[in-house]
Amino acid sequence: MESPIPRLDSAFSGYERLKLDIIRGVFKPGEKLLMGGLKERYQLGVGPLREALSQLVAEHLVVVISQKGYRVASISLQEMQDIYDARANLEAMIVGLAIERGDDTWEAQVLAHSHTLSKVGDVTSRDKALEIWDERHKAFHSAIAAGCGSRHLLQARKYLFDQAERYRHLWLTQTMFSAEALELKRKEHAALVEGILARDSVRVAALMRDHLMSPVPIIIEIMHRGANETSRKTA
Predict the structure, then answer these.
(1) Strands ordered across the beta sheet of 69-72
(2) Which one, of 19, 26, 5, 3, lies nearest residue 53 by Cα?
(3) Structural domains of the chain ordered from first start
(4) Strand partners, 199
(5) Which of 65, 121, 146, 191 is the most exposed place for a label (fewest CB within 10 A)?
(6) What is the pLDDT of residues 104-140, one digit of tens each?
(7) Residues near 86 by Cβ (< 8 Å), separated by ≥ 6?
(8) Mind listing the pLDDT tens digit for each residue in 155-207?
């Protein structure tokens, strides 16, 4: 007897799609999320949408408005800096543990993902190129972190990564296709791999902190610019 075809979890699908739209700025910080518009955009009923929104509330990407509706969570410089600082320090600790605990198979995975990332070629679609680079970049860093062997640390890492995503996307869309930015990231990744292969945990931890904090000045500039433009429009 054939196994039944798995049913698509519409609430999860709606959650993933809405989360991506929030991260990419389709829905702006502070924007009210109207159920009618969400139903039309995602072709989902009220029940699955409420489940998706509840999950995003738990992840602090959406806030409840007096129990009567939902709004995209606001962003702020203070929150961004706190998230990036926490993430950089946690990732530095994780990579230190990974170097201490990781075996030859872990090293091979890091090398494989580093090679794949370095081979991202030209893609005609800007959005597609961004998507491919971002996927491979995440996979490279996840391969490094996996060596720590701690499920709870990896869960904490994922939470901070998700919190940083909206801010990180600002940086990605502004800088990732400049030759200078790509070359800088290539050198940073190569230095991380070199330090990992040398099992130099102190050096790699410092490199990881610097690598993850490097977008912060650019994000600050982008957010200031956005705030100034908003002020001019409302003046």
Answers:
(1) 32-33, 69-72, 62-65
(2) 19
(3) 10-72 (1.10.10.10), 77-226 (1.20.120.530)
(4) none
(5) 121
(6) 999 999 999 999 998 876 555 666 777 788 899 999 9
(7) 160
(8) 999 999 989 999 998 888 777 667 777 788 889 999 999 999 999 999 999 99
